[in-house]
Task: inverse folding
């Protein structure tokens, strides 16, 4: 996933291709000494870099365990140390661009490592909250399904009997509507709690669209639910169908086309950042070839 071992591999390749032979030019020797020093830094960190590589492979392979988060944190710290040491290593003028590329690669890996670490910490909590929201929706459906409003029907009998039947119907309808409103209020209370928990999370860049969508969805659902519950408790309820539709639309907003496009775009941008690391490695190889021609 990350090109964590790339710098060491490139350094070794440079030593083979640049630092060979006797009687080389001063530029050749200076470049070779710089590369050897860079390689020494990585050799000294070989054990930690190997651990970092394994941690990222486990994450990419879905081997998420309780131990992975601290392993990823340690891996990020290892990459930061590597970056700092490469920055502190002076390079001869002829190898200035190579040094810049090596540092740029290390910096990019630190940035991506930070995002991966945050993703590993964020995702389980985010998924758990989404499951809780889905479960709350299921409980609401079950509660609403348990309410049986009276069915409208033709009433026959004396005027007094008709009036009594109408009054009974209105009472039963009001009771059913109140029960539905209570169920929606209970759902809204759960959603409010989940919204507060969601607000405490800090999403990595790749998850920001999905995170923002869920926050908006929960907020819109709560507002629509409160409006529907209020309408259900009215003596006359002519707009229940309208408010009910708004509630359903709000609850489904997370699956809208625009929301899905934003999430897909974020994933593509993340993949692009990963691919750019490969591009940096290619640029380093190209610079190695240029130095070989110039200083050979």
Result:
């Amino acid at each position: 996933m990350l090109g964590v071992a790339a710098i060491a591999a490139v350094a070794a390749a440079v030593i083979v291709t640049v630092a060979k032979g006797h009687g080389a030019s001063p530029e050749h020797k200076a470049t070779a000494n710089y590369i050897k020093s860079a390689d020494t830094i990585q050799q000294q960190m070989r054990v930690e870099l190997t651990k970092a590589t394994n941690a990222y492979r486990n994450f990419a392979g879905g081997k998420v365990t309780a131990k992975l988060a601290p392993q990823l944190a340690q891996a990020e710290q290892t990459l930061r140390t590597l970056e700092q040491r490469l920055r502190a290593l002076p390079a001869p003028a002829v190898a200035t661009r190579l040094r810049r590329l090596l540092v740029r690669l290390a910096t990019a890996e630190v940035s991506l490592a930070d995002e991966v670490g945050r993703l590993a910490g964020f995702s389980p909590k985010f998924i758990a909250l989404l499951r809780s929201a889905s479960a709350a929706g299921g409980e609401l459906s079950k509660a609403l399904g348990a309410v049986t409003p009276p069915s409208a029907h033709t009433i026959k009998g004396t005027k007094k009997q008709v009036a009594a039947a109408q009054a009974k119907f209105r009472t039963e309808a009001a009771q059913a509507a109140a029960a539905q409103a209570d169920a929606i209020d209970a759902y809204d209370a759960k959603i409010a709690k989940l919204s507060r928990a969601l607000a405490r999370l800090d999403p990595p860049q790749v998850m920001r669209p999905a995170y923002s969508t869920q926050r908006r969805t929960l907020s819109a659902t709560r507002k629509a639910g409160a409006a529907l519950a209020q309408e259900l408790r009215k003596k006359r309820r002519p707009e229940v169908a309208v408010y009910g539709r708004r509630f359903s639309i709000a609850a489904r907003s997370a699956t809208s086309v625009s929301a899905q496009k934003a999430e897909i775009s974020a994933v593509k941008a993340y993949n692009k950042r990963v691919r750019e690391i490969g591009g940096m490695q290619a640029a380093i190889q190209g610079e190695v070839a240029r130095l070989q021609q110039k200083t050979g």
Observations:
- The two ends are 35 Å apart (CA to CA).
- DSSP finds nine helices and no strands in the chain.
- Residues 116 and 124 are 13 Å apart (CA to CA).
